[in-house]
Every structure is written in structure tokens, then in C-alpha cells.
């Protein structure tokens, strides 16, 4: 098979093997968004195997992916291990309880194939393998150790890291073993790529990363390699500070979101010969932009980067209401970049109305104001825990402070982020001053910061 005649699956495999490619592989992360193509809610496709399969097949037909995830839900393992869920309709579920909160003894029980939604997920994986597996690489997404530990333990996990390192190490070892079990299940069901999805890995410092989760991740990626599969380390949020230590865990690929500069990030991943995937902006382009906005982003992306060791993908799981034509525009641009440039020759993007945004008078507030800027706490795990940390700390103050969340999925908040110069999400501002950016604080540290605002 020549490079030019390779299937989409083989094109992606060549990129993951760090070989020459004829084009940049395309991997649209259609999790709950898959349901939009068949008129199903996100909740329906995450609970009903028939609807999930129909939606995934529609994604495969309409978006022509080289690689495709089967399920994008970071609560699958947590649900099995005892976390209660809150379903949100068109988003993945939220974690409502943390069974290891306040617990000192770490359990040893592992997930079983007949628990939770695993029977449905494994069945759909096998069906997708039979239907499209010859031409499309299939991704099995496993919840990464830091995020799963947070689901099970709650915000206590950040205090464990600093004040109870032995407890933290024990929890991480436990969730590392869960990740290996899930890897086995997904590989047996026919998955080609195992992606460890860990939004919370971007919310700790490089030193904390190296000391606490680097070794478990090295074990996981070595395990996936021994099984003959490809691996991906998938983070959300501003992981700029952690790219080097992530590379040192030796995944085949790293996937990042719009918080990162791909040019400088790729310089690091190329040094380690790791394939880099990303990073079409989820909100400003995919959800709220036009088809032309998305096409222009992709052709500019392709022009700015060496195509070796590169994958084009959304920055994370696409929002449910992402217009289908916007994703098709990305497909058009990656498949036919030169033709797309001609189509965009006279296009200019609309400007944000910054004058419509009213910034609080921070010097004359009646009481301290804590502002949490998120992608969307209902769908972004790092955002969920950042907002949760603020809400937990705010119980110390009751009604004597104000707390507000600005979700980047709302157009007016996109303009607010630009006007205030918010560079990374999630972030916490107190009385207009940036206090935490892509680093989730422990409770006492945040309480102390709020006290300073009185």
C-alpha cells in the first residue's frame, strides 16, 4: 500500500508510528455531539446502545474520520466504583458523590465487564469494529488517574497531594490499576488507540506531576504498548507547564486543547518524537463560529505546523450543539486545504462587541467578588473541580461574598474573557485580580485568599 492510497485508519497509524504521511489525520471528538446527528440527546446515547451505535455510524458517514472515539464520558468508571451521577440532558453526567471522601482505607475492587454501562459500551465497540473498523481507527477513552481519583475522593485529593502524600499515592495506585483493567476491556472489544483522558493533570504543577503521577502514567503507557496498541495522553486546560513531564511518560501521542500554543508545544513533543493532536477551539470556532471560521482555522493550523507527528482534532469533546456544518467545514479544509484557501480568499471574521460587556467596579464593591471563568463546569472536569473548590471555600463566608461563574459557551462571556484579558480556563479572579489559572487550590489556600479581599 502506498502512502497516497492508505485508508484513514492507516494514515492515523502512520502518524502514531511517526512515519511519513500524505496528509494530516483527522479525529473529530464527537461524544454527546454524535447524538445531534440522529436527533438523540446526549443522555440517550450514553444510556442506549442502539442509539449510540446509530449516532456513531452517522458521525463516521458525515465527518469521514480517520480516527473516532466510541464513548466520550469520564464518569463510566466512577459510576461503577460508587459515584452517584446527575444527568444533564445533552452533556455527559456530573459526579454527585465521592465514595472515598473521608475514607482512609483504599478499596481493592476492580470494575467488572457486567457492571454499570460497560456491557452496553463494549457491545457498541464490537459493533463499530465490525462496521467501520477496517477503515477507521477506533479510540477507547479511559478516565485518567488524577481525574478518577478526584471523582472518587472529591476536592480532598488536592489536600492529600500536599499534606497526606502516602494516602495520595495509595489512591493513585488504585486508579492506575483500574485504568489497566479498562484498557484490557477496550482492547478486547477491538479498540485501536487507548486514550488516557485526564483534565485534572493540567491543574497541578510540573513538580507535583513528576512526584505523584509520572510513574503511574509511565506504567500505564508501557502496559498499552505491551498489548500492541497505540496510546494517547489527553489533557484539557492550560497544560503548557506540564507538556515536558507528560512527554516523559512516553505516550505515542498527546492531545491538547485551545489553551496551548501548538507551535511551541510541538517543538517539545517533537523532541520526544511524540505525535501531537489538537486543537480546534471548541467555543469560539466550533460552537459559536461560522463554517468559514472553522475552515480558516484549519487551513491556518495546517500552514503553521510541520505535518510530521501531527493530528487535527477539536480541543476536546465537541459541545452537543456544535453546528454540523462547522464540523463539515473542518473536514473540507483538512481534506482539501488549497481549494479551501481559494474559497476563503475574501473572508474576514466578525469582531466581538466588547463595548456590550460591563466590567464590575472592583474598587467599590459592596463585598468581595469571586469570579470563576470556565469552559463550562457542566462538561469540563477541570472546570467542575475549580468551581467546586470555590463553592466549598465560600461556605466559610456565606452571604458575605459573591460568587459567579462565567461559562465560555455563552457568547457574552467570550467577549468578557477577551475584555478582561483572561488567558486560560479555568481561572479564578478575586475582586478583579487573577489568583488561580489552571491550578486548583486547596481549600485553606483559597479561604486565605478570599479573606484578604475584605
Describe this protein's structure.
The structure is a single chain. The protein is α/β, with parallel strands linked by helices and 454 residues long. It folds into two domains: 8-343, Alpha-Beta Barrel (TIM Barrel), CATH 3.20.20.210; 354-451, Glutaredoxin, CATH 3.40.30. The chain has helices at 8-16, 33-36, 42-47, 49-63, 76-80, 118-132, 145-153, 156-163, 165-188, 206-212, 214-226, 243-247, 262-271, 282-287, 291-304, 324-335, 337-343, 381-394, 411-420, 443-451; strands at residues 67-69, 85-86, 94-95, 137-143, 193-197, 230-234, 253-255, 275-280, 310-314, 369-374, 402-407, 427-430, 433-437. Strands 1-4-5-6-7-8-9 form a seven-stranded parallel sheet, sandwiched between helices. α9 (165-188) packs parallel to α11. The protein is globular. The relative contact order is 0.11.
Structure at a glance:
The chain is built from 20 helices and 13 strands. It is an alpha/beta fold and 454 residues long. Strand 6 (230-234), helix 12 (243-247) and strand 7 (253-255) form a beta-alpha-beta unit.
What is this structure's SSE topology?
Elements: H1 8-16, H2 33-36, H3 42-47, H4 49-63, E1 67-69, H5 76-80, E2 85-86, E3 94-95, H6 118-132, E4 137-143, H7 145-153, H8 156-163, H9 165-188, E5 193-197, H10 206-212, H11 214-226, E6 230-234, H12 243-247, E7 253-255, H13 262-271, E8 275-280, H14 282-287, H15 291-304, E9 310-314, H16 324-335, H17 337-343, E10 369-374, H18 381-394, E11 402-407, H19 411-420, E12 427-430, E13 433-437, H20 443-451
Helix pairs in contact: 4-6, 7-9, 8-9, 9-11, 15-16, 15-17, 16-17, 18-20
Amino acid at each position: 500500500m502506498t502512502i497516497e492510497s492508505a485508508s484513514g485508519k492507516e494514515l492515523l497509524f502512520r502518524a502514531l508510528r511517526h512515519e511519513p504521511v500524505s496528509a494530516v489525520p483527522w479525529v473529530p471528538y464527537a461524544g454527546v455531539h454524535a447524538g445531534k446527528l440522529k436527533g438523540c440527546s446526549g443522555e440517550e446515547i450514553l444510556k442506549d446502545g442502539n442509539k449510540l451505535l446509530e449516532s456513531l455510524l452517522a458521525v463516521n458517514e458525515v465527518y469521514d474520520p480517520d480516527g473516532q472515539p466510541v464513548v466520550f464520558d469520564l464518569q463510566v468508571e466512577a459510576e461503577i466504583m460508587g459515584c452517584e451521577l446527575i444527568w444533564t440532558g445533552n452533556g455527559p453526567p456530573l459526579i454527585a458523590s465521592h465514595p472515598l471522601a473521608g475514607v482512609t482505607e483504599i478499596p481493592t475492587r476492580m470494575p467488572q465487564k457486567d457492571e454499570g454501562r460497560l456491557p452496553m459500551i463494549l457491545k457498541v465497540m464490537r459493533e463499530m469494529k465490525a462496521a467501520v473498523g477496517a477503515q477507521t481507527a477506533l479510540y477507547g477513552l479511559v478516565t485518567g488517574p488524577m481525574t478518577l481519583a478526584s471523582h472518587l475522593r472529591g476536592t480532598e485529593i488536592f489536600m492529600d497531594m500536599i499534606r497526606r502524600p502516602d494516602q495520595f499515592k495509595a489512591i493513585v495506585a488504585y486508579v492506575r490499576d483500574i485504568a489497566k483493567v479498562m484498557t484490557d476491556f477496550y482492547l478486547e472489544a477491538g479498540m485501536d488507540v487507548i486514550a488516557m483522558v485526564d483534565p485534572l493533570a493540567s491543574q497541578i504543577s510540573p513538580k507535583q506531576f513528576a512526584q505523584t503521577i509520572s510513574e503511574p502514567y509511565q506504567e500505564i503507557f508501557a502496559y498499552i504498548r505491551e498489548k500492541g496498541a497505540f496510546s494517547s495522553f489527553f489533557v484539557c486546560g492550560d497544560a503548557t507547564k506540564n507538556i515536558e513531564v507528560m512527554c516523559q511518560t512516553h505516550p505515542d501521542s498527546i492531545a491538547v486543547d485551545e489553551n496551548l500554543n501548538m507551535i511551541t508545544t510541538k517543538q517539545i513533543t517533537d523532541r520526544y518524537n511524540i505525535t501531537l493532536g489538537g486543537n480546534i477551539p471548541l467555543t469560539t470556532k466550533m460552537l459559536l463560529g461560522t463554517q468559514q471560521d472553522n475552515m480558516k482555522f484549519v487551513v491556518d493550523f495546517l500552514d503553521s505546523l510541520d505535518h510530521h507527528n501531527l493530528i487535527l482534532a477539536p480541543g476536546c469533546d465537541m459541545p452537543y450543539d456544535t453546528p454540523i456544518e462547522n464540523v463539515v467545514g473542518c473536514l473540507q479544509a483538512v481534506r482539501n486545504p488549497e481549494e479551501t484557501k481559494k474559497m476563503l480568499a475574501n473572508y474576514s471574521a466578525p469582531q466581538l462587541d466588547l463595548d456590550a460587556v460591563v466590567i464590575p467596579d472592583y474598587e467599590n464593591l459592596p463585598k468581595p467578588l469571586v469570579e470563576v471563568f470556565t469552559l463550562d463546569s457542566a462538561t469540563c472536569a477541570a472546570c467542575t473541580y475549580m468551581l467546586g473548590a470555590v463553592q466549598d471555600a465560600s461556605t466559610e463566608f456565606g452571604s458575605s461574598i459573591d460568587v459567579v461563574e462565567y461559562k465560555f459557551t455563552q457568547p457574552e462571556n467570550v467577549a468578557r474573557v477577551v475584555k478582561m484579558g483572561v488567558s486560560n480556563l479555568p481561572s479564578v479572579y478575586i475582586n478583579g485580580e487573577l489568583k488561580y489559572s489552571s491550578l486548583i487550590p486547596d481549600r485553606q489556600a483559597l479561604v486565605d485568599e478570599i479573606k484578604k479581599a475584605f
